[in-house]
Amino acid sequence: xxxxxxxxxxxxxxxxxxxxxxxDSQAALLNKLRAAVLGANDGVISTxxxxxxxxxxxxxxxxxxxxxxxxLVAGALSMAAGxxxxxxxxxxxxxxxxxxxxxxxxxxxxxxxxxLADLLQSKGMSADVARTAAQxxxxxxxxxxxxxFELGIDQHDLVSPWAAAISSLVSFSVGALIPLLAMLxxxxxxxxxxxxxxxxxxxxxxxFVSAKVGGAAVIPAIARNILGGFLxxxxxxxxxxxxxxxxx
Length: 248
Description:
Blueprint: H1 7-10, H2 26-57, H3 61-107, H4 109-122, H5 127-151, H6 161-185, H7 191-214, H8 218-247
Helix pairs in contact: 2-3, 2-6, 2-7, 2-8, 3-4, 3-5, 3-6, 4-5, 6-7, 7-8
């Protein structure tokens, strides 16, 4: 005796729901991890440049701490505000697209069915199979189907401005603490060298992780990261030394 098939079982494999689609997909999680790593990387480089510039001008620990903490706070808040504004605009756009799609589904359902069938057919389905699959998807969740295949949006998982802002603030702050603590805690005679070493190690790690997450070549990513950070520290230290000499 055969068991009845469900609507999902009847649908072509390419349009059936997948178990991993019930939460954050692996790609989404990797993107979040990469954003966090890049935020930390920004914190490392920008704060390292700042404290190295000040260290070139003065050995006063209070001045170094003031500049470093101010740079950490300002950078973290700037990153958070920027992410909040950017992601809010993206979410507003997604909501507007969903509202437009919802209106079109209510006012011209046949045209929307044809559109979905065409989209499925463009993915390699025959016209008959695409039409059947489109009808099944429309019957199950018309807005969700169009949001997915036409807009590339998950209507139940829109981007969160607050999550992006907090993530950027935290990741930048963690990265910024590395050069700041190295500069403040190391003995005065090795302060600059210790900071450079700590920053280069941190940049090695962030370059390695970002390359692995993004599927890029590891060695070039690490080399670019370290070279960029070293140049930033060298230039700002040189400027700080020049300014300190002139003012002194």
